[in-house]
């Protein structure tokens, strides 16, 4: 249930709740809000995501300057991605530069993002700069925002399942030094959808 | 997002405009300041939307909801915005809206509306409290406080918030069905209760129905005053009930603990009730619950919170899984322990609590996996626990706090050859500030702690010195506090500090730092470093510190002036004639003269001590008289009943020194002699002691005492020497006392400190030295 709620599978969570007779402990409608926010970022509509998160909880962005900066940074990246250079420059000047003045720790990221403009017409920009245009950058921003929303709802930022797997791997690594034992192999399960223990 | 265009006063804000405004403001402090500066009526318009005509339909609730969100967001902006909120009477409007939406109110408001209003009210009140002050110790130094009439208006607004009618409106929201609303009100209490008056008002609050019951039991004409119950009042009981529940979120438990910590601070009655022993204590006084915990622990079970005493529950929650709940519980225990001051013999569970508490805090401070804000808050709680408590400072040292803090400071500060990280995250800077603050508090009062710190962490002085150049004022402030604390040790001054460049760095701060609060603490360190035994004295004097201190004395505000005079006073102690002349040439004798008659007691006290220091040698007395011909009359003004004790004592010492060279001048002033006589009869033993020593210097080895007798000083001395039995009549010289004139002395006994003066029935003078000196003086006067 924890995995389904945090990862945003609302319908699955509802059905699971009914079948297993488990109380979801959270408002399942909030899952839908979170998912629509995440989807907005994943398709590049950061402004809509900001409006929606402000509707959901107006304090999240006011109390998390780093998150707000990353969202604004993503908006700048979207301007650059679509070739809107003038808007990008104006946006950086009016919205991002003040954030850099308020919090000097953001300056490095700001410089990296502005460097995109310099390498705009270059076929092979440096990897650190090119990564900003990669879809994973959107995923990263969406994940950060999702975590903040979950935290504001007093839910875990990470699924317990992931934590358990991490603990399992750590425990196996420690035990491996002392003894031979059958390890749990996740690889077949990741490829075929089935987990199989050796 | 751009701010919407300003509107005229006639228009009202539509829902769409409020939403646009909200999205433009959230996360953007510049936009918030720009709004209030470019459109002075904006906040008024938003506030007017709170109480829209119809708020009892789902759609019409959105306007006040969005207006609440806008107000909340504005509160996260610069402190200057608070003035706009105050001018628009935001607190009053929010209170009105809350009163309508309350369960007993006229509107059937939704959770969304109540939640938005409660959150906005919390944000506004906390923002006002941050302006009104004093600042919240858990958050570090914070931004530079506003000055001027905004502070006055903020204080007035805060009084309104914590008056009975207002409490009747928002405190019942603590038991709202929505946890989010309760959390908002808890955080309001936790963050905005800054004065003992407000804390008492909240702690003693009773609901109107409870007050009605109280009044009913009386004769009817008494005021329905709030009264604290033995269990701590409605608020404490409600908070305890919230904390004990199993079905609440960690954030709710944290908020309730923080609110409880806030109202317990300085509240002896409440703190004592929270420390009450459980009914079934065993023979050693150990609480039953703790024993039960030991028995059950082996089975993997724990006692439910609902069954524990408050104290046991707090200690349990100090080890909760959630870091923020642990912090809140630690703060609660800290405030309860400091306020309870249990009378001996202290129950074992109370005396052992600091060790447990410090252990938990040390764990959080040392845990590198923990987020910086948690570690910083742990440091600030440690600071609040031990501040000005010598025994607790030692407890913390013994528990390893100084080692943990020193290790943390070491990790946070880059090597000497590396400049400060320009892009250092604010959380890391706050953590450094917190670690330095806690270190300073642990070493302020105990020399053993200072020496232990330097022994365990030999490089701590260079680290502190590095911190003095940090970009964040809070870090520099905390580093200055460390310097001040360490420089109180003579051996540390002579060795570690003397060998370092700390004095020069501190002086640079005094000269150039832009934050007055940092300069203030740096002056305290300078005051320690100019003492005669310190190797840094010469360095500072040669660097021109006297000129800077004189400048501050002439132009600075009261606090800066006080600390600067204090430094000069120390510099004048055992100074050479050349140093003295140099110092007074910079300050100016006329300026010094005005300090002796300054309206502020503390300035008079320190200045009079400076005069005493200057006249320690006979040659210097002449120098002072030549430079300040009216010094005697200035000192006489300080030997008056209306003057504070410390200044009077210093003035008497100065007169005593003066009279060793210029006795004739002293005894030729009848009013001065009468003032000395009155000081012999002062209620303070210290004043009497100084006055008697002064008389000894005036009379011993002399033959002419008529002026002394005319002032009836001998009568006063005689009265001082003789003991009085309880119940002796007032206004006489005492049993057996007689003056040379044969008249009974009608003395004016003034009492500047308490109602228990010399006529308290417990005897006259208990100090043997004073009595002996009085006898010596009397014998000289009587020619024996």
UniProtKB/TrEMBL annotation, chain A:
Protein name as annotated: CTLH domain-containing protein
UniProt-listed InterPro entries: CRA_dom, CTLH/CRA, CTLH_C, LisH, Ubq-SigPath_Reg
PANTHER family: RAN BINDING PROTEIN 9-RELATED (PTHR12864)
A Pfam family assignment: CTLH
Species of provenance: Hydnum rufescens UP504
Residue ranges annotated for the CTLH domain, each copy included: 30-87
Source organism phylogeny: Eukaryota, Fungi, Dikarya, Basidiomycota, Agaricomycotina
Domain of life: Eukaryota
UniProtKB/TrEMBL annotation, chain B:
Domain of life where this protein originates: Eukaryota
Pfam families: Arm
InterPro entries: ARM-like (IPR011989), ARM-type_fold (IPR016024), Armadillo (IPR000225), ARMC8/Vid28 (IPR038739)
UniProt-annotated location(s): Cytoplasm; Nucleus
GO cellular component labels: cytoplasm; GID complex; nucleus
GO biological process: one example: proteasome-mediated ubiquitin-dependent protein catabolic process
Entry-linked Gene3D superfamilies: Leucine-rich Repeat Variant
Keyword Cytoplasm found: yes
Keyword terms, alphabetized: Cytoplasm, Nucleus, Repeat
Region of interest: Disordered: 762-784
PANTHER family to which the protein is assigned, alphabetical: ARMADILLO REPEAT-CONTAINING PROTEIN 8
Protein name: Armadillo repeat-containing protein 8
């Amino acid at each position: 249930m924890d995995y389904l709620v945090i990862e945003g599978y609302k319908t699955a969570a509802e059905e699971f709740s009914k079948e297993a007779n488990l109380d979801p402990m959270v408002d399942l409608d909030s899952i839908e809000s979170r998912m629509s926010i995440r989807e907005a970022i994943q398709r590049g509509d950061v402004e809509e995501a900001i409006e929606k998160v402000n509707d959901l909880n107006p304090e999240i962005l006011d109390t998390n300057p780093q998150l707000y900066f990353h969202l604004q940074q993503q908006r700048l990246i979207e301007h650059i991605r679509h070739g809107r250079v003038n808007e990008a420059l104006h946006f950086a000047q009016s919205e991002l530069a003040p954030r850099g003045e308020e919090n000097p720790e953001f300056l490095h990221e700001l410089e990296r993002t502005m460097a995109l403009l310099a390498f705009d017409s270059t076929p092979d920009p440096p990897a650190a700069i090119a990564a900003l245009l990669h879809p994973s950058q959107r995923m990263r921003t969406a994940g950060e925002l999702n975590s903040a929303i979950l935290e504001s709802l007093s839910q875990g930022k990470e699924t317990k399942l992931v934590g358990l797997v991490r603990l399992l791997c750590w425990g196996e690594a420690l035990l491996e030094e002392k003894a031979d034992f059958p390890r749990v192999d996740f690889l077949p399960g990741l490829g075929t959808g089935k987990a199989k223990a050796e | 997002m751009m701010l919407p265009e300003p509107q005229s006063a006639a228009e009202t804000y539509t829902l769409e405009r409020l939403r646009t405004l909200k999205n433009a403001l959230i996360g953007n402090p510049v936009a918030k300041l720009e709004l209030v500066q470019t459109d002075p009526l904006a906040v008024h318009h938003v506030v007017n939307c709170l109480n829209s005509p119809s708020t009892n339909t789902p759609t019409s609730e959105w306007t006040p909801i969005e207006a609440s969100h806008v107000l909340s967001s504005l509160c996260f902006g610069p402190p200057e915005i608070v003035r706009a909120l105050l001018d628009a009477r935001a607190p009053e409007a929010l209170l009105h809206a809350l009163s309508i939406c309350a369960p007993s109110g006229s509107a059937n408001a939704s959770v969304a509306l109540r939640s938005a209003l409660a959150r906005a009210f919390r944000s506004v009140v906390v923002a006002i409290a941050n302006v009104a002050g004093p600042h919240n110790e858990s958050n570090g130094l914070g931004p530079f406080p506003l000055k001027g009439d905004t502070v006055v208006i903020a204080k007035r607004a805060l009084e309104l918030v914590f008056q009975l009618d207002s409490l009747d409106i928002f405190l019942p929201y603590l038991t709202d069905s929505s946890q989010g609303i309760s959390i908002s009100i808890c955080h309001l209490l936790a963050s905005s209760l800054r004065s003992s008056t407000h804390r008492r008002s909240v702690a003693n609050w009773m609901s109107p129905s409870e007050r009605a019951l109280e009044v009913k039991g009386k004769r009817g004409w008494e005021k329905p005053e709030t009264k604290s119950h033995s269990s701590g009042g409605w608020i404490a009981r409600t908070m305890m009930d919230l904390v004990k529940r199993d079905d609440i979120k960690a954030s709710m438990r944290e908020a309730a603990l923080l609110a409880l910590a806030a109202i317990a601070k300085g509240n002896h009655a409440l703190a004592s009730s929270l420390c009450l022993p459980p009914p079934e204590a065993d023979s050693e006084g150990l609480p039953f619950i703790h024993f039960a915990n030991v028995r059950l622990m082996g089975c993997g079970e724990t006692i439910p919170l609902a069954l524990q005493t408050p104290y046991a529950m707090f200690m349990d929650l100090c080890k909760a899984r959630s870091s923020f709940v642990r912090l809140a519980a630690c703060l609660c225990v800290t405030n309860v322990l400091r306020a309870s001051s249990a009378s001996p013999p202290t129950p074992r569970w109370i005396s052992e609590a600091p060790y447990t508490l410090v252990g938990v805090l040390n764990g959080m401070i040392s845990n590198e996996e923990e987020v910086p804000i948690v570690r910083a808050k742990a440091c600030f709680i440690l600071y609040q626990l031990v501040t000005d408590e010598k025994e607790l400072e030692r407890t913390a040292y013994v528990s390893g706090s100084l080692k943990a803090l020193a290790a943390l400071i070491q990790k946070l500060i880059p090597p000497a050859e590396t400049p400060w990280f320009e892009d250092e995250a604010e959380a890391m800077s706050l953590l450094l500030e917190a670690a330095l603050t806690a270190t300073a508090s642990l070493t302020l009062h105990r020399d053993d702690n200072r020496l232990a710190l330097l022994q365990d962490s030999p490089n701590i002085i260079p680290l502190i010195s590095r911190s003095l150049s940090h970009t964040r004022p809070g870090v520099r402030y905390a580093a200055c506090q460390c310097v001040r604390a360490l420089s109180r040790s003579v051996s540390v001054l002579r060795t570690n500090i003397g060998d370092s460049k700390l004095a020069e760095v501190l002086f640079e701060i005094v000269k150039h730092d832009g934050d007055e609060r940092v300069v203030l603490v740096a002056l305290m360190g300078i005051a320690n470093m100019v003492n005669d035994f310190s190797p840094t004295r010469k360095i500072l004097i040669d660097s021109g510190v006297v000129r800077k201190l004189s400048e501050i004395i002439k132009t600075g505000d009261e606090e800066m002036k006080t600390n600067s005079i204090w430094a000069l006073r120390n510099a004048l102690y055992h100074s050479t004639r050349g140093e003295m002349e140099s110092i007074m040439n910079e300050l100016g004798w006329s300026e010094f003269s005005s300090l002796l008659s300054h309206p502020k007691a503390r300035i008079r006290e320190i200045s009079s001590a400076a005069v005493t220091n200057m006249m320690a040698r006979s040659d210097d007395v002449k120098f002072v008289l030549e430079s300040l011909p009216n010094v005697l009359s200035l000192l006489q003004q300080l030997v008056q009943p209306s003057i504070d004790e410390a200044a009077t004592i210093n003035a008497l010492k100065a007169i005593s020194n003066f009279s060793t060279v210029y006795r004739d001048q002293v005894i030729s002033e009848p009013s001065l002699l009468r003032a000395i006589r009155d000081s012999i009869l002062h209620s303070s033993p210290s004043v009497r002691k100084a006055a008697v020593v002064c008389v000894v210097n005036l009379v011993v080895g002399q033959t002419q005492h008529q002026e002394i007798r005319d002032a009836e000083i001998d009568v006063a001395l005689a009265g001082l020497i003789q003991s009085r039995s309880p119940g002796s009549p007032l206004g006489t010289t005492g049993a057996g006392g007689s003056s040379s004139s044969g008249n009974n002395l009608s003395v004016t006994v003034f009492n500047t400190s308490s109602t228990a003066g010399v006529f308290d029935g417990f005897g006259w003078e208990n100090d043997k030295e004073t009595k002996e000196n009085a006898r010596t003086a009397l014998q000289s006067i009587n020619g024996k």
